[in-house]
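ok so for the tutorial part 2 we go from a plain amino acid sequence to predicted structure tokens. step 1 is just haveing the sequence, like this:
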Amino acid sequence: MKLLSAFFVSILMMAPVMQANAQNYPCSKSMGGVSHCKDGKFVCKNGKISQSKKVCSS
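step 2 — the prediction. this is what the tokens look like for a chain of 58 residues:
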């Protein structure tokens, strides 16, 4: 029972960290991640420009 409780507590502690990383990354996993930077904007691996307000440098 203690092992099961420890598992659920660890999952609950990790959830906010995983969510924060997702919110702060310019290109989501479904977009393939960041490919490169062009004119201060992130270009995703699927070819689309990220809608992120962050500015990148070459």
